[in-house]
From TrEMBL:
Protein known as: DUF2905 family protein
Keywords on record: Membrane, Transmembrane, Transmembrane helix
Record-linked Pfam families: DUF2905 (PF11146)
Bilayer-spanning residue ranges: 7-25, 45-68
UniProt KW Membrane keyword: yes
InterPro entries xref list: DUF2905
Keyword Flavoprotein among record annotations: no
Domain of life: Bacteria
Length: 70
């Protein structure tokens, strides 16, 4: 059961880290405005897909999880 407890603690820490990151996301001006983000604006239509931002966040999370597994 100790493994289960460790997993719950890790999940709690990850959720807390995500909460802190979302709290300070507006203070990071480049987040969501990277050159690879797709933004289409028309008269009555607006579409935004943060492709480059998603890739950067995925790489950072992959690195953090890889370091935690070591």
């Amino acid at each position: 059961m100790t493994g289960f407890g460790r997993h719950l603690i890790l999940i709690g820490l990850v959720i807390a880290a995500i909460g802190v990151a979302l709290s300070f996301a507006d203070r990071i001006p480049w987040l969501g405005r990277l050159p690879g983000d797709i933004s289409i604006r028309r008269e009555n239509f607006s579409f935004y897909f943060p492709l480059a931002t998603s890739i950067v966040i995925s790489l950072i999370l992959s690195l953090v999880l890889w370091l935690l597994r070591r």
